[in-house]
């Protein structure tokens, strides 16, 4: 079903599946300000490090955030 939905909206569906939806949920939750700890708990990860890697938070993103905040 997920691949069919993807095709309907013009997405490449080779790697589209339930796991894609799970990762997208985590990524979107982070963008809306949900804490990494809460996302990690929801996804059942053992640590926030796993969650950060899972949803694509890397050192470049952290550096950009630090550049935006001047204390």
How large is the count of helical segments? 5
Task: Output mean pLDDT.
Answer: 87
Record field, number of beta strands: 0
- Unreliably modeled segments: none
Backbone CA Rg? 15 Å
Question: Can you give a write-up of this model?
Answer:
This protein has 71 residues and is mainly alpha-helical. Helices cover 66% and strands 0% of the residues. The chain contains five helices and no strands. Helix 2 packs antiparallel against helix 3 (36-43) and helix 3 (36-43) crosses helix 4 (48-55). The longest helix has 14 residues, at 18-31. It is globular, with a radius of gyration of 15 Å. The mean pLDDT is 87.
At a glance:
This protein is mainly alpha-helical and 71 residues long. It has helices spanning 2-8, 18-31, 36-43, 48-55, 59-68. The longest helix is centred in the middle third of the chain and has 14 residues, at 18-31.
What's the layout of helices and strands?
Blueprint (H helix, E strand, L loop, with lengths): L1 H7 L9 H14 L4 H8 L4 H8 L3 H10 L3
Tag the structure with descriptive keywords.
71 residues, mainly alpha
């Amino acid at each position: 079903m997920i691949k069919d939905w993807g095709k309907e909206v013009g997405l490449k569906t080779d790697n589209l599946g339930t796991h894609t939806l799970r990762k997208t949920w985590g990524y979107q939750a982070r963008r809306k300000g949900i804490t990494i700890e809460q996302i990690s708990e929801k996804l059942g990860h053992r640590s926030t490090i796993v969650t950060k890697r899972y949803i694509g938070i890397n050192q470049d993103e952290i550096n950009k955030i630090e550049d935006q905040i001047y204390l």
